[in-house]
Specification:
heterodimer; A: 187 residues; mainly alpha; Rna Polymerase Sigma Factor, Chain: A; Arc Repressor Mutant, subunit A; 2 domains; 8 helices; B: 82 residues; 5 helices; 70% helix; elongated; RNA_pol_sigma_r2 (chain A)
Chain lengths: 187, 82
């Protein structure tokens, strides 16, 4: 498969746009899922995942063919999700606690027929709960936990996706696991 | 408390597959005796297996077509460069 992808990339670099559709087909589920887990919202996930593939296409000439394409693509997608999270105004953070109201978040202020960001997708309650807990981790731990445990990248690959030293990956994964443990210990 | 902190660091090294045999023995000998550390370790491994049980999600239908439609116009430079 890796070989086939390599050949398609060569053709895309030569200007053959149609060759790109097989690449999108092959990675769409993984990239969409990654964006959904990062953002906790179906519409934003679709938007950002599409953007990631478009950026990858536009910048395909800068992709070094000696590297793994998936790592490069994940880097683009992760950066876009983090940008999107940063651009959300803090005032509108649904999961931000309301001052003076212990444990109460903006979610509880939504009228009951507004769908919660991650409500539409999951089939089971537990699944919904897990995604919600993940999407409430601070973004820098969230990306690492998702890449490590849901997408099963090695620590070295994560360092290259996030463009941070491996020592930082280890510190963050350590803290991310502790944050996750605190959230999930009473389930 | 210090001793637990030390063991927690070992737990994370273990989870990253970066612990040597001697430290690993040290960790598990301690875990057997120490309830607090045993609980901590179980909570860590359980929260990991819990998130790993999350179902896979598929991209919405028509995803590839939507991306392909939004790409900038095909570069013609190769085709006409003869």
């Amino acid at each position: 498969m890796e070989q086939l992808i390599r050949e398609k990339i060569k053709r895309v670099k030569k200007g053959d746009q149609a060759a790109y559709s097989m690449i999108v087909d092959f990675y769409q589920d993984r990239i969409y899922q990654h964006c959904f887990r990062m953002l906790g919202n179906k519409h934003e996930a679709e938007d950002i995942a599409q953007e990631a593939f478009i950026r990858a296409y536009i910048n395909i000439d800068s992709f070094d063919e000696n590297r793994k394409f998936s790592t490069w693509l994940y880097r683009i997608a992760t950066n876009l999700t983090i940008d999107r999270i940063r651009k959300r105004k803090p005032d509108y953070y649904l999961d931000a606690e309301i001052k003076g109201a212990e444990g109460l978040t903006m979610y509880s202020q939504l009228s009951s027929n507004d769908p919660l960001p991650s409500e539409e997708v999951e089939s089971s309650e537990l699944n919904h709960y897990i995604h919600q807990e993940i999407s409430e981790l601070p973004p820098k731990y969230r990306s690492i936990i998702i890449l490590r445990y849901l997408e099963e990248f090695s620590l070295q690959e994560i360092a290259s996706i996030l463009d941070i030293p491996i020592g930082t990956v280890k510190t963050r994964i350590h803290r991310g696991r502790e944050a996750l443990r605190k959230r999930l210990r009473h389930v | 408390m210090e001793i637990h902190k030390e063991k927690i660091i070992l737990m994370h090294q273990y989870l990253d597959g970066e612990i040597d045999k001697i430290k690993e023995m040290e960790l598990f000998t301690h875990i057997e005796k120490c309830e607090a550390c045993r609980n901590h370790f179980e909570e860590l491994t359980q929260s990991i297996s819990m998130i790993q049980s999350a179902e896979n999600i598929q991209a919405p239908s028509g995803f590839t077509n939507n991306v392909m439609r939004k790409l900038p116009k095909e570069k013609k430079r190769i085709k006409y460069k003869r």
